[in-house]
Specification:
The complex is a heterodimer of chains A (110) and B (115). Chain A has 110 residues and is mainly beta. Chain A has no helices and eleven strands. Chain A has strands spanning 3-5, 9-13, 18-25, 32-37, 44-49, 53-57, 60-65, 70-75, 84-91, 98-100, 104-109. In chain A, strands 2, 4, 5, 9, 10 and 11 form a six-stranded mixed β-sheet that branches. A five-stranded antiparallel β-sheet of chain A has the order 1-3-8-7-6, with no helix packed on it. Chain A is globular, with a radius of gyration of 13 Å. By secondary structure, chain B is mainly beta. Chain B has no helices and eleven strands. Chain B has strands at residues 5-7, 10-13, 19-24, 31-38, 42-50, 53-57, 64-68, 74-78, 87-94, 105-106, 110-114. In chain B, strands 2, 4, 5, 6, 9, 10 and 11 form a seven-stranded mixed β-sheet that branches. A four-stranded antiparallel β-sheet of chain B has the order 1-3-8-7, with no helix packed on it. Classes of the chains: A mainly beta (110), B mainly beta (115). The A-B interface holds A 31, 33, 35, 41-45, 48, 87, 89, 91, 93-103 and B 4, 31, 33, 35, 42-45, 48, 50, 55-56, 58, 90, 92, 94, 96-97, 102-109.
């Protein structure tokens, strides 16, 4: 079967660092994506990993271990505007055929 | 550049009716994917079109169909609407796998309410 797991909710303090984990079991794998979605808005692309290792993009970093079926999104220097849902998605095969995780709702507190 | 445009933004339909949703991708993008988002099920893949051909299809009944035109614009149709079809329908566009740029951009979505 296909399964992507993420924590449902996380809370962190402004200025802190938070790590959102994602584990997956899918029939295919062509890459792992992280998206940010604010309430009532469309998801926006954050990062893409297809090889093992860390991808860094400003305050956001994403890590992938294909052998472990594991990824994490690291957010540094948290800001209030980072309060949103973070979606882990696996592209299974050719053509944007994503399987999405349930999303992690992150609340950043002052 | 203009983003992904979905119309209409909001729609209310009655059970049994049919509905057509539209998605205009970013200029130059040839791949359009459709997703259904509900609080209980999250984001679920419906289908993906590339150069007017459906390349992938998710696990939805045949009441859900789509097509893509030569200008890459895509439409999604749901026939014989059921209450459970109430959801946010999102489309995403990208260059497609011909390109190394895999980033997909989502539209604002169409919120469909079936009463």
């Amino acid at each position: 079967g296909q399964n992507i797991d993420q924590p449902t909710e996380m809370t962190a303090t402004e200025g802190a660092i938070v790590q959102i984990n994602c584990t997956y079991q899918t029939s295919g794998f062509n890459g792992l994506f992280w998206y940010q979605q604010h309430a009532g808005e469309a998801p926006t692309f954050l990062s893409y990993n297809v090889l093992d290792g860390l991808e860094e993009k400003g305050r956001f970093s994403s890590f992938l271990s294909r052998s472990k079926g594991y990824s994490y999104l690291l957010l540094k220097e948290l800001q209030m505007k980072d309060s949103a849902s973070y979606l882990c998605a696996v592209e299974q095969d050719y053509g944007q055929n994503f399987v999405f995780g349930p999303g992690t709702r992150l609340s950043v507190l002052p | 550049k203009a983003g992904v445009t979905q119309t209409p933004r909001y729609l209310i339909k009655t059970r049994g009716q049919q509905v057509t949703l539209s998605c205009s991708p970013i200029s130059g993008h040839r791949s359009v994917s459709w997703y259904q988002q509900t609080p209980g099920q999250g984001l679920q893949f419906l289908f993906e079109y590339f150069s007017e051909t459906q390349r992938n299809k998710g696990n939805f009944p045949g009441r859900f169909s789509g097509r893509q035109f030569s200008n890459s614009r895509s439409e999604m149709n749901v026939s014989t609407l059921e209450l459970g079809d109430s959801a946010l329908y999102l489309c995403a566009s990208s260059f497609g796998r011909d390109s190394m740029n895999t980033e997909a951009f989502f539209g604002q979505g169409t919120r469909l309410t079936v009463v």
